[in-house]
Structure formats: C-alpha cells, structure tokens
C-alpha cells in the first residue's frame, strides 16, 4: 500500500543515517562443513524473497520481474539434498545480477572477526598482494589449498552483488579472504601459493600484507599549473576527523597557490556518509542545499511512530528536503571553476554528492556515466537466512535527487570523457579545456 504524505509532517529521515558508512557483518562461516537438505535451502530461498519484497519500498520497479522469476525457477531446480556452503551460496548468488544494486542481494559469508583481511588488488582476473618482508614486492596469489585463484575470481565476479564489474571487483578486493574461505567451505587456508614477477613461486601459510598498504591515505592534493586536483576515494564516516583536517589544510594551500580551477576526482569513490561529503561542499558553496527532494520509504516498527496513520509494511512517498546550511563565514572557500570527475565506479554517497553539485550548479561533472543510478537507494537492512545463516541485504529508502528528476540512468556528465577510468589527469584536463573552448568557460556555462 502506498500513501502520500504532505512535506509539513515531522519526517522520519532526520533520525536515520541515510547513507550508512559501513555494512553490518554477515553471519560467520562455520569452521566445519555444513550440509543442508533441499527443504532447508528452499525455506531459506523463500525467506530471502519474502523479506526482500517486504523491505524494499519499490522492488517491482527496481528489477525486471519476469527475468527475476525465471532465474528463481532455475535456482529452485538446482537445489538438492547434501549441498555444502560453497555450492549453496553460488546457486543462491545467481539472483544477485538480476537485483542490479550493491545495496541489495546476497552477501559473501563473513569470516571470524579475529581474522585479518587480505589487502589485494585484482587486475585482469588475477589477485595481487604486497607482502610484508625484506623486499615488500607485489606478489600474485596463484592458488589456495590447490584451488586456482583466477578460477575463483572468474567464477565469483559475475554473481557478486553490484551494478558493474568495476564495483563487483572492488567488493571482491575488500572481501577477498571471505571469498577464499567460501571456496574452502568455511575452512581456513593451509597453503597459499604466491608468485613473484620473475615467476618464482613459494608457499606460505598466511598472507601478511605490508601494513602501509591497508593504511594508504584515501585522499590527496596535487597541482598542475593553476589547477588543484583533489583525489577522494571515500566518504566513509570512520575517516571523518582525518578528512576534516585534510579539507581544511587543502583549501588553505589551494588559496596560497592561487589555483583558479579545482578538480575533485571521485572516479574510485565508493561512497560513505553525507556528513563527510558535506565538509567538502562547505568549501564549494555558501548557499544552502538539499541532496534529495523526495523519498519513498518502507514503514517499519522502528519508524511508524513518526508517520501518523502509517502501518508497518506501508510504503510512504513524500517530498523531503534535507537542508544543509554551509558556514556563512569560512576561510579559503573556493571561488574558481569546479570540476567533479566521475566514472563507472563512482557510487552511493559519491553519486549523491555529484548530483547535488550538478543540480545546484556548483560545478560541472566530467567523465563517464555512473553505473549506479542517480536516484540512489539507502538505509540498508540486513537479514540472516534461518538455516544457512547466509546474510542478505535490501534498502528501506529510494531517494530522488534534489532536481526532482526521476530517471533510471546514472549521473550523466556535463563533459563526457570516454575511458575516463584509464586517463591521466593531464589527459582529462586537455579534454576539459577543449570542451570549454567549444562551449564557453565553465563559469559562463553554469551562469553562476
């Protein structure tokens, strides 16, 4: 049931974190192999589907229903007695691509919280890690307990949640140890075969990455002539204090260097919290803004008290403004041309940030269309399946960007740049300058 509420209501969203900085962890994989019957697995499948449909506020509009139902039939047909962790997970995961949203679907089973993650980079279907040691050189993880890692990646990448290969690959990089343990049916690896660039192989019992690799700063500032380039790879809430210092120091330096143009590189930014990205916007505009103009929300026991007349299960559609007032007086607020650089991997809160900049004409968007939709989902919920313990996720909210435009596309750049993810900043600036010469300078194009 969908209900329309007037915007004057005291709204629900002020009491929720619309853009969670991190996801709740999945149920731990059992250390001993677990075997399930067809009846148990079918019960879990039904529980997943029922929970998702009763949680997502616009499920039928978010997926190709016919294709999804056909895939469900194929998954059911593949269920049988005696299925173990890995086989059952890969069968269930065939539904992930049809959901087409990293905020929705089946999670990789989590590992024990006492186990360290493996910091890897995946390139061309192969996993690389920089190991701690005398040489600290990058090594390829070739196999784990005799299982080929490239085959593991090739098998898993198509069925990980997410809208694109780039996003799914990033999830695998962050959850690589979980991927390995899934393929070992929850067991810890005993032998990890690694290979150096010269082809030399050795076997280790544990991957211990260089500490600095996991602590690399996710943002940086550089200059190219009169252009300042700010690379920001995350808006995660746990780096808020560090980000606040970085932003303050960066704009002081931008002012001292007398930069006339600022490029904010969000090509690898997977999102985070709006409180963090607001720190950056504070230096780009003095005018108030709202990142969203409307919301469609599923009513739950937690929020029903703030929506008069609504019952759990209802879907509430309403105008909603989440106004942010930048500081009226701020040292070093930037007044030059602003370019926001986006690409296929730009996601979640980085998308919301980009649409806000675009809708309020704070700057120009350059790059390639995001794979994630311009109107994002939010407030991700998690649910453990009763038998396997697999964890699934779904959002409670669908947001409408501040312009009110409701399309199924990603963020469309003002300045299209092909293969933007592979281009250097110098190449990108050359394209931007070309565009400016043909269309007028960014300020005149925006008519700020």
UniProtKB/TrEMBL annotation:
Q: Where is the Tail specific protease domain?
A: 200-418
Q: Which GO terms describe its molecular function?
A: endopeptidase activity; serine-type peptidase activity
Q: Does the keyword Ubl conjugation apply?
A: no
Cite the entry's keywords alphabetically.
Signal
Q: Sorted alphabetically, which Gene3D superfamilies does this protein's record hold?
A: 2-enoyl-CoA Hydratase, Chain A, domain 1
Per the record, the GO terms for biological process are:
proteolysis; signal transduction
Q: Where is the signal peptide?
A: 1-26
Instruction: List, alphabetically, the GO terms of the cellular component aspect.
Output: outer membrane-bounded periplasmic space
Tell me which Pfam families the record gives.
Answer: Peptidase_S41
Official protein name in the record: Peptidase S41
């Amino acid at each position: 049931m969908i209900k329309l509420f007037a915007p004057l209501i005291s709204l629900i969203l002020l009491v929720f974190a619309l853009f969670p900085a991190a996801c709740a962890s999945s149920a731990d994989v059992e250390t001993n192999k677990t075997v399930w019957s067809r009846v148990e697995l079918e019960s879990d499948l039904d529980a997943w589907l029922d929970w998702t449909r009763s949680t997502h506020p616009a499920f039928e509009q978010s997926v190709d229903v016919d294709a999804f139902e056909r895939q469900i039939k194929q998954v059911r047909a593949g269920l049988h007695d005696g299925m173990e962790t890995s086989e059952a997970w890969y069968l269930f995961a065939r539904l992930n691509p049809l959901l087409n949203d990293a905020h929705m679907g089946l999670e990789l089973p989590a590992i024990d919280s006492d186990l360290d993650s493996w910091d890897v980079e995946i390139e061309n279907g192969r996993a690389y890690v920089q190991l701690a040691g005398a040489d600290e050189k990058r090594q390829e993880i070739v196999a784990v307990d005799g299982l080929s890692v490239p085959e593991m990646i090739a098998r898993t990448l198509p069925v990980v949640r997410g809208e694109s290969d780039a996003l799914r690959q990033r999830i695998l990089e962050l959850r690589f140890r979980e991927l390995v343990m899934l393929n070992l049916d929850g067991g810890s690896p005993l032998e990890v075969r690694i290979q150096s660039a010269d082809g030399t192989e050795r076997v280790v019992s544990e991957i211990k990455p260089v500490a600095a690799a996991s602590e690399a700063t996710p943002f940086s500032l550089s200059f190219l002539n009169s252009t300042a380039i700010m690379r920001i790879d995350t808006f995660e809430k746990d780096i808020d204090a560090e980000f606040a210092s970085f932003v303050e120091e960066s704009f002081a330096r931008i002012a001292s260097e007398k930069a006339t143009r600022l490029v904010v590189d969000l090509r690898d930014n997977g999102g985070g919290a709006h409180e963090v990205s607001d720190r950056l916007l504070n230096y780009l505009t003095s005018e108030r803004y709202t990142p969203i103009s409307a919301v469609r929300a599923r009513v739950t026991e937690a929020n029903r008290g703030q929506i008069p007349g609504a019952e759990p299960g209802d879907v509430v559609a309403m105008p909603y403004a989440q106004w942010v007032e930048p500081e009226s007086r701020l040292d070093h607020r930037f007044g030059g041309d602003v370019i926001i650089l986006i690409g296929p991997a730009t996601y979640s809160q980085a998308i919301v940030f980009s649409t806000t900049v675009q809708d309020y004409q704070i700057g120009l968007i350059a790059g390639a269309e995001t794979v994630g939709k311009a109107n994002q989902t939010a407030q991700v919920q998690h649910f453990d399946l009763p038998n396997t313990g697999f964890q699934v996720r779904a959002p409670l909210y669908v947001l409408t960007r501040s312009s009110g435009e409701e399309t199924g596309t990603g963020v469309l750049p003002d300045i299209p740049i092909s293969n933007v993810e592979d281009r250097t900043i110098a190449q990108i600036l050359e394209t931007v300058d070309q565009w400016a010469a043909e269309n007028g300078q960014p300020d005149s194009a925006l008519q700020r």
